Structures are given as C-alpha cells and as structure tokens.
Amino acid sequence: MKNSHPKPLSKSVLNQYFSRLTHGYLLALGLIGFLAFAPLAVLITQIHSQSRYAAMTALAVEQRALCQRIVLLALRLTQEPDASRRAEFRAIIARWVNDVERIQRGLIWGDPGLNLPGHPGRDIERLYQEAPTNLDDRIGRFCEEAHALLALPDTAPLAPQTPELTPLLQAIPGDLLGVMDRVLAAYEQAGSLRATHLQIFGTVLVTLLLLTLAGQMSLIFRPLIQLLFSETHALETNRRELDAVLRTVGKAILTTDERNVILTANRGAENIWKHPDHDLVGLSLRALVLPGSDLEQEDWRTMIPPGCRAETVGVRKGGGAFPLELCLTEVRHDTDDVPGGTRHFTVSARDIT
C-alpha cells in the first residue's frame, strides 16, 4: 500500500525552490527600488520645472518693466537740457532695449546665460507667434522704434511730437502691456498645471510602491511560509511514523551522539532496562552496562565495529544484571557549519538471557 503521508522535500528540490524564490525576491526588490527612486526623480523634476517656469515668469515681468522704463526715460529726453545727461539716458535706453530683445529671444528659443530653456509650450508660443496677440512681433516693433529714436542726432531736447517718439508713447497705454499681461498669466498657469500633473504622477508611483510591497508579501513571503509549514508538518509526520515503528520493534533501539549521550530510546529499550524512555534520554550509554565491564571502561565504539555484534553485561534500573548483545551502526549527517559533518550512532540491543 502506497504511503499517503507527505515526505520532506529533497535538498536539491529545496535549493531549486529557494533559487526561484531568491530570483523573485531580487526582482521584487529591484521593482521596489525603482518605485522608491521614481518619486524622488519626480520631485526633482517638479522642482526643476517650478524653477524653470519661475525663471521665465520673472524675466517676463522684468521685460514688461523694462518696456515701461524705456518709455519713461524717452520722455526725459524731451525735458533734459543737459547734453551729457541726455547721452547718459540714451546709453541706458540702449542697454534696456538690448535686454528686452535678449529676454524675448531667450523666452522663445532659450538662453543658458539667463537660465531660460526656451520652448515654453504650445499655448504660450501661440501668444508670441499668432494673431491676435502676436507678442513677438509687437516687441520687435517696439525695439525697432526705440533704436530709431536713439539714432536721431542729439543736438537738443527732443520735441514731444517727434515721429520716432510717438509710437513708443502709444505702445504702453495701448495693447502691448495687455498682451504681456496675458503671457504672464499663461506662464503662471502652465507652471501650476505642470506641478499638478507631477503631483498626480508622484501619487500614482507611491500607490504602485505600496501595491508592490503588498504583492511581495503575497507572492514571496506567503509561499515561503507555506513551504515552512509544509516541511514542518512532513517532518513531524515522519517523526511520529518512525516513533510508531520503533515502538513496535522487539529489539531495544537507541540513538546516541558522539559523546555517548542517548538521544532517543524506543519501548524495547524501556522493557529491557526497565527505565521509562524519557528517563533514558540524556543518560550515557555506559550507565546501562555493568560497571567494570569492557564497554563501561573503554570507548565501546572502538570495540564494536559498525555492523558487528558484541556481548556484554547490562544493568537494569533496579541494579539487576543481564546478558546483553549490542550492534552498532554509524550515521553521518552533512552540515555546512561542521567540517566532515556530525555523527550519530544507532545501537540495537537484545536481552540474550
């Protein structure tokens, strides 16, 4: 009849199982590492994105202010009688116009010196390039008119009705500042929207990380725990079966370690020596033979070659002696922490009275 009880898995099968388990565990750890790093990368990207839009917004604000200052200083040219002061004003206007033009190019195409990446997004680019706003064209005309004003000879204060001055004066209260305000609002909205998207993405990644941890518990630790329970049950079942077999054997069977200490004893040993089996465990085998006998005085393992039998005199719990036959079998257990493994000995005994 085939034995239906579970058997412990062999060492090779266990090694294969734990190898697959280790691979799965490393894969899960790699995924967890990626998902743990990803939110950090998202945070860095969010900070960089916020810095990018903050820089573009700040320079767009500065460009708007420069246009206003250019117009105000151009008005000073109509009121300042001192030629040296007018020359100073012209130099300042020229510098500001160059700054306006550089900021304009940087906002659209990028400028590393101004920390501007350029290409602000399709919606903002439409405000620069397409009607009805067409801010790039408006800024271009404003700067051309400023250059034309500076190209006039400086012989006297400018007249308020100077043709080159009139377009500048009309630009500020006209549509130029209104269009620039729309662009500023678009930069702020784009930065806020970008930050919101990155926050949502980071939340999704954190959720995936938590789900991966839960999956790791289910896919890795749960099978491992099931394996441990299964192996423990199989070992316990086999131990009970072995105990049942040993208890039904007519001979006394003992197992000892290398120090002759009894590890297990069956019912046959209890019947021969009149000791309860739990009392035998922990005793030295020499305590079960008559004092003064060869096996009590010498190392009995050297006197009984494995597989051979020897006769001696046993002593029961009450002190009674009886003729005893012993047979020794050595069992070696391979262990990683003990070179050469550990040795146990199985001793079968028979009362030969």
| Radius of gyration from CA coordinates | 48 Å
Order of helices and strands: HHHHHHEEHHHHEEE
**What quaternary form is this?**
single chain
Broad shape: rod-shaped
CATH hierarchy, class of the largest domain: Mainly Alpha
Number of strands: 5
Helix share, percent: 55-70%
Contiguous low-pLDDT stretches (5 residues minimum) are 1-6
CATH topology of the largest domain: Four Helix Bundle (Hemerythrin (Met), subunit A)
Distance between the termini: 37 Å
Let me know the largest β-sheet: 5 strands, antiparallel
Strand content: 5-15%
Number of domains: 2
Query: Which secondary-structure class do the elements indicate?
Result: alpha+beta
- Order of strands, main sheet, comes to 2-1-5-4-3
Task: Count every helix, treating DSSP H or I runs of 4 or more residues as helices.
Answer: 10
List the helices and strands and how they pair.
Layout lengths: L10 H66 L6 H27 L12 H8 L5 H16 L15 H6 L3 H74 L3 E5 L5 E4 L1 H7 L3 H4 L13 H4 L2 H4 L5 E7 L5 E13 L8 E10 L2
Antiparallel strand pairs: 1-2, 1-5, 3-4, 4-5
Features of the shown structure:
353 residues; 5 strands; 11% strand
What does this structure look like?
This protein has a 5-stranded antiparallel β-sheet. Strand 4 and strand 5 form a beta hairpin. By secondary structure, the protein is an alpha+beta fold. It is built from 10 helices and 5 strands. The chain folds into 2 domains: 11-216, Four Helix Bundle (Hemerythrin (Met), subunit A) (Up-down Bundle), CATH 1.20.120; 250-351, Beta-Lactamase (2-Layer Sandwich), CATH 3.30.450.20. Helix content is 61%, strand content 11%. The model is unreliable at 1-6 (pLDDT under 50). The longest helix has 74 residues, at 175-248. Helix 1 packs antiparallel against helix 2 and helix 2 (83-109) runs antiparallel to helix 4. It has helices spanning 11-76, 83-109, 122-129, 135-150, 166-171, 175-248, 267-273, 277-280, 294-297, 300-303; strands at 252-256, 262-265, 309-315, 321-333, 342-351.
